[in-house]
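Following the same procedure, sequence and fold were stored together, as reproduced here:

>
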Amino acid sequence: MNKVFVYGSLRQGLENHDLYLKDCSPYQSGYVKGKLYMIKSEDYPALLKDDNAFVYGEIYEIDDNQLKELDDLEDYFSINHINNEYDRILCDIYDVHQQIIDQAYVYFYNVRNDKNRSLLGLAIDSYDFVEYKKRG
């Protein structure tokens, strides 16, 4: 089994959750170091590394086939591949007190790619994408 931390459209209540994770229950919730940004002309966020901020999300345990499906969704080809839309990186997951509680794969937006970098929009003024979406 693989653990994956989701923070955007794969979270409960959002569009991709029912397509990819509907048969899974969240293993637990937590935070990852990073900051959310919108992607121009899209309705899903980009996560960039940021040691001074945290993003809230859910951890799921998924099998290898489900991980491959998420890799396809996130346009992840392989480690450090320049054409990745998102890089899949094993990261520490934190609790509300900023203590490490687990490790899971996290999809970070690949800004090494010039096209991706040009599509990066404004920073999201929330650590929680679901709450941000509810505000409209």
